[in-house]
Description:
The structure holds 2 protein chains of 2 kinds.
Chain A (H helix, E strand, L loop, with lengths): L1 H33 L6 H44 L7 H23 L10 H4 L11 H23 L1 H11 L1 H6 L4 H27 L5 H16 L4 H21 L6 H13 L13
Helix pairs in contact in A: 1-5, 1-8, 1-9, 1-10, 2-3, 2-8, 2-9, 5-6, 5-8, 6-8, 9-10, 9-11, 10-11
Chain B lengths: L2 H18 L1 H5 L6 H21 L10 H18 L3 H23 L4 H21 L1 H4 L13 E2 L4 E2 L5 H24 L1 H11 L1 H6 L4 H27 L9 H14 L6 H19 L3 H15 L3 H10 L1
Amino acid sequence: xxxxxxxxxxxxxxxxxxxxxxxxxxxxxxxxxxxxxxxxxxxxxxxxxxxxxxxxxxxxxxxxxxxxxxxxxxxxxxxxxxxxxxxxxxxxxxxxxxxxxxxxxxxxxxxxxxxxxxxxxxxxxxxxxxxxxxxxxxxxxxxxxxxxxxxxxxxxxxxxxxxxxxxxxxxxxxxxxxxxxxxxxxxxxxxxxxxxxxxxxxxxxxxxxxxxxxxxxxxxxxxxxxxxxxxxxxxxxxxxxxxxxxxxxxxxxxxxxxxxxxxxxxxxxxxxxxxxxxxxxxxxxxxxxx
Amino acid sequence: xxxxxxxxxxxxxxxxxxxxxxxxxxxxxxxxxxxxxxxxxxxxxxxxxxxxxxxxxxxxxxxxxxxxxxxxxxxxxxxxxxxxxxxxxxxxxxxxxxxxxxxxxxxxxxxxxxxxxxxxxxxxxxxxxxxxxxxxxxxxxxxxxxxxxxxxxxxxxxxxxxxxxxxxxxxxxxxxxxxxxxxxxxxxxxxxxxxxxxxxxxxxxxxxxxxxxxxxxxxxxxxxxxxxxxxxxxxxxxxxxxxxxxxxxxxxxxxxxxxxxxxxxxxxxxxxxxxxxxxxxxxxxxxxxxxxxxxxxxxxxxxxxxxxxxxxxxxxx
Lengths: 290, 317
């Protein structure tokens, strides 16, 4: 029984961790290249989820899974172009405040359009079944979510490793000035990078909608753990963010078995311990944080 | 005397006259004294944040935590320890300041966005503690069951619970005290050093200034002021709320400072006044006030990044 409970919570933790990873990777991409803490990232998750809800009657679940993140990325591109681009090169305070206000508007806007009640998103029937009676908590959908996250993360790392865009993003993270001096359109680079980050937020929105249902406030709860995933993994390192997200997911899952009240607090404790013993984070490079 | 100090003196006198007479002009204008008290307390909080933000150039986005700690410190003291208003205020200030001092040590090496990120995350720690520890803090419902106590001045007892004007003047007295100390620090060599760090950290370091230690002291002082303001806020409401520690409250404080003018000493007070009155008004006319507050954030950032005072000063020049 105990092992089953433990297994249940570890699985839960991994699934939650997968969400943190998707969110945190997008945040991290934007933070690394543009020095913008995107407070509205949770808002974009909500937009992705509600777009999926709105279009799934027409295009089905599979169509929504593909289209909703793309549409979210397009919205993100427009937001970046109009609101965030004027703030590059200014004190990071301003982009923080702006995305903070934007998060307010998105949350309130979705509430205004779709109402404050949660909305269910239908998932294909064969995914909703538990795999076996023994492991009742592992539904097909949960495995499917983890698989999608895995594929998305793998594609992201392949993109960054092997494509021209990816190489430029990584180079820009290290030294944007040199990249600009080499004749690369940095504005375009930042826009595309932002869109990739928002695509990931939209994707987590669709996945979360299928599992938890939709609420206008669902993004806010995921934002803080994603911050911590980035800090724990090491600011500036995407593999670190990946590890950090999974780690805090599992840690809060395991804590939920033994001391449920602390399942949220444990991730903050982890952050404090990491900052005390290894200030740059697990995979961070020396000096990135200062 | 040249023209500049005289002008400054006149402005200063005008500010204090406006504040001293607030109960008399607020009410005829359609406000109420409690609104003025709230502006004063939140203004003090925004000025305390700006002590760090505007004068040391360090971006803390988790300062509501120390504000909220001050509120809980005052509330818990009144509820469990002693029925004394001054003691509660001191306890709140100490709680906010000491927690700030400890966390400050973990923070001082970070800069810019990274500093902001870590301060947000650590601020949330206190939010969760207040939220989860319901046996002590009342959890989500907030801390209730205490009220501000009459002030015992030896000769007379001053009723600040039921008399809104008396309470306003008590808060104004505390405000003056805090603002006086803040101004004194900013004029001291230490304050000048803070500004030097803001202007050019590397050069300050070359001059032999221990930058980390100065930032830590500035952070700690600002947390003490923040705790002080938070304690007063608990007295205003006779209530302490976990949302007072949340990062969205921090965002409001940063907004007040930016909207008023980060580079000026009094700017955040003006920002707080505009923000509080506007929020009060918006939430009375529409349920979608959050959208409007969000829009305000965006508009201020895009069009008035130097704040109201910065805008006026530039258009005059």
